Amino acid sequence: MIELKHVDKSFGHKEVLRDVSFRVENGETLALIGGSGSGKSTLLRLMIGLDRPTAGEIWIDGTEITKLSEDELDDVRLSMGMVFQYSALFDSMTVGDNVAFGLREHTDYDEEKIQEIVREKLLLVGLPGSEDMMPGELSGGMKKRVSLARALAFGPSIIFYDEPDSGLDPVMTRKIDDLIIETQKKLGVTSIVVTHDMESACLVANRIAMLYEGRIIAMETPEEFRRMKDPRIREFLGSFAMESSVKDWN
To answer: Model confidence over 105-115: pLDDT tens digits?
Structure first.
């Protein structure tokens, strides 16, 4: 579903990504981890088409996107959903209007069809009947759920999650993790989850990829990742205040 081939990205003289290559299979969930400045956000922007690589190819569901026009990229983006780190809801719009926004902008659906989709997606994320609420009335976890409902509105085949657990307490973090897993199982979507939470990465992902100084240095199942002895990986894991099941990694 997603394939990167020898992707480089530089900003002026600063090389951010170096020879990045990997594949994500249809229906797979990949967790992307790495320290601050490792290139995670840049890689995400490249896959969405918001930036273009300095070199290399990016394939999304059989289409190489790096040379596409903006109009062509917009067509490809309709197959993608994005859940932003801070939800990125429109504060002046109701929950229902936030979920409906893209449908009104990019489809010719009538309002009845749009409202049907809004109700369906809000039910899917566990927020039935919340259409008339305002973002200011929502908790952080509820905002993440609305953001996911909006991302699902087009029926995407790929969902990108940018730090979905950021700013949430441990209980809500696990609920969001469960929602990511449930979404993948119910809809069969391909997912990339950028996260710093190692417990979340192990729960939601089929494989974990680690970026270090702009390169992918490991891409393994959670079980294999736990056993890796690479000192860069052990140092990264050890830099966090591990709790419960993550403590035994070191």
So the answer is: 888 899 999 99
Q: Could you give the CA distance from residue 101 to residue 118 in angstroms, rounded to a whole number? A: 10
CA distance 174 to 3: 29
Which is it for the CA torsion 205, 37, 62, 114, positive or negative?
Answer: positive
Q: How far apart are CA 148 and CA 150, in angstroms?
A: 5
CATH architecture of 26-54+70-249: 3-Layer(aba) Sandwich (3.40)
**Domain chopping of the chain, boundaries:** 26-54+70-249
**86, two tokens:** 């801070």
**Three-state DSSP state, 193:** strand
Span 50-73, pLDDT tens digits: 999 999 999 999 999 999 999 999
